[in-house]
TrEMBL record:
Superkingdom of source: Bacteria
Protein name, UniProt field: NAD(P)/FAD-dependent oxidoreductase
Pfam families from the UniProt entry: Pyr_redox_2 (PF07992)
Domain FAD/NAD(P)-binding residue range list: 7-203
SUPFAM superfamilies in UniProt: FAD/NAD(P)-binding domain
Taxonomic classification: Bacteria, Bacillati, Actinomycetota, Actinomycetes, Pseudonocardiales
Length: 483
């Protein structure tokens, strides 16, 4: 390719797509378009509006390092505040003019030189470089429960909250006890009369309290930007020191987190019968760790009922469990999680020689160091296969990946590179190393979770975030076919 501005298309204006766009703009890449299927930015933070939603990564760290925000109201930011942050950042960083809203890319095909894009309403576009920033928690997973559609009241998924439904005083069922179910239980306790929580598998809970930031501390961070940066780095350091290691290797971090969870359950739930129901069958962190200091107190209320008998079906009047009991309810909330393995789907991606991503990923999503896929030139993924997830900030991970992609784009702009694609050998070597590292992680200690792929192998990063940064510090040229 001759030196000049490559045209870059990003799919998705959620956290990672905005991150990539911001870095490209800052580096002077102006031939840039972000295709967003919805009418606003924010991705999962736009879609999730359920009561009690907050991020379980500390707010001072769950923000772009290049767009610090002094105004967080609490140490774990409420979802609505995070959404406002992304909308604000998209305007402040001059990105909105580059975003095509209501533009869902249905198909992208490599024609040997560039990608030809087609939206679901028939518009076409092209791009020299394509970046998929389609997110992880995008496709709600609806449970396969008999009779769900026969329910006479309101029933909806937590990520598609029906705000027209009145909650106060209603008999509400929450199905699922992941982070969402736990946050909903804390928020709806006392609102619902009663709240019935259906738990299939108990989860470990780390009691991190929600603490408000005082106006004085917010003013101090506004006045001295260095304080904000210091705060970001301190949280990053702490998160990496503890959670960065706890999940991926045995050591004091894993022992400490596990011990805190076990002691908290012992101290917070004094009723031995209830405690037995809330004791998970697996090790802390095998499923994604739940951060909440308000869940167990909510369960101690008389108007909150924990049901552990399995659901046999839903009937017009409520939820029937295996003990034969009908739990009569007015509203059912499905806090049953997401299809975290959808990645770009249902978008169709076609690479070299007609290879489709669906074919390439037949036995599971596999990429090169989380950012690229063999057979798909000039194509990059943000929060792609095996990105570090655990309890780390995905924003920090996306920034590392965006910087890496930017490195390739600089080469393309300078004319030294026209097309770049990772080799199949380097990718398979990387994936073999991943698999060999998995046994040290806590995710393989015997539980079912959205972390696991169809073959039972975790689709997560089995090393620390520091290793991820090191692997993406600069391209290893022999791992690529470059023209
Ligand atoms: P999760 O963490 O995937 O949790 C889903 C929950 O729903 C979990 O407790 C599941 O039980 C339960 N579930 C799923 N299907 C059913 C059926 N059919 N019957 C009963 N219970 C069911 O999703 P969340 O939305 O809470 O959190 C997703 C991520 O968002 C979270 O990790 C953070 O990253 C933010 P199971 O444990 O499978 O027995």
């Amino acid at each position: 390719m001759a030196a000049g501005q490559p045209r870059v298309a990003i799919v998705g204006a959620g956290m990672s797509g905005l991150c990539m766009a911001a870095k490209l703009r800052q580096a002077g890449f102006d031939d840039l378009v972000v295709h967003e299927s919805a009418s606003e930015v924010g991705g999962t933070w736009r879609d999730n509006t359920y009561p009690g939603l907050s991020c379980d990564v500390p707010a001072r760290f769950y923000s772009y390092s290049f767009a610090p925000h002094a105004g967080w109201s609490r140490n774990f930011a409420p979802g609505a505040e995070i959404q406002r942050y992304f909308v604000g950042a998209s305007a402040d960083l001059g990105l909105r003019g580059h975003i095509r809203f209501n533009s869902e890319i249905a198909r992208a095909e490599w024609d040997g030189r560039r990608y030809r894009l087609r939206t679901s309403d028939g518009h076409t576009d092209h791009a020299d470089v394509l970046v998929a920033a389609t997110g992880v928690l995008r496709e709600p997973r609806l449970p396969d429960i008999d009779g769900l559609s026969s329910f006479a009241g309101a029933a909806f998924h937590s990520a598609r909250w029906d705000h027209s439904v009145t909650l106060r005083g209603k008999r509400i069922a929450v199905i699922g006890t992941g982070s969402t179910g736990v946050q909903l239980t804390s928020a709806l306790a006392g609102v619902a009369k009663p709240l019935t929580l259906f738990q299939r598998t108990a989860q470990w809970v780390l009691p991190l309290p929600q603490l408000p930031y005082s106006p004085v501390s917010r003013a101090a961070l506004r006045a001295v930007p260095g304080l904000n940066r210091l705060s970001y780095r301190s949280y990053q350091h702490l998160m990496e020191l503890v959670f960065g290691h706890a999940a991926v290797e045995p050591g004091w971090q894993r022992t400490a987190v596990a011990e805190i969870c076990r002691s908290y359950l012992r101290l917070a739930i004094r009723d031995a019968g209830v405690r037995a129901k809330l004791t998970p069958p697996d090790d802390p962190m095998c499923k994604r760790l739940i951060m909440s200091a308000s869940f167990y107190p909510a369960l101690r209320r008389r108007d909150v009922h924990l049901v552990t008998d399995s659901i046999t079906r839903v009937e017009p009047g409520g939820v029937r469990t295996s003990d034969g009991r009908l739990h009569e309810v007015d509203v059912i909330v499905l806090a049953t999680g997401f299809d975290a393995h959808a990645f770009l789907r249902p978008m169709e991606l076609v690479g070299e020689n007609g290879l489709t991503l669906a074919d390439a990923w037949q036995s599971g999503p596999r990429g090169y160091r989380t950012v690229a896929v063999p057979g798909f030139p000039n194509f990059f993924t943000l929060i792609g296969p095996h990105s570090p997830i655990g309890n780390h900030s995905l924003i920090a991970i996306a920034e590392t990946q965006a910087d890496y992609v930017l490195g390739w784009l600089e080469r393309i702009r300078s004319g030294s590179v026209s097309t770049v694609v990772p080799t199949a050998e380097a990718t398979s070597e990387f994936n073999s190393a991943l698999r060999s590292a998995m046994p040290s992680t806590v995710w393989t200690t015997g539980c079912d979770s959205w972390y696991l792929g169809a073959d039972g192998v975790p689709e997560l990063w089995p090393w620390t975030p520091a290793v991820h940064r090191r692997m993406l510090a600069s391209p290893v040229l022999p791992h690529f076919q470059v023209n």
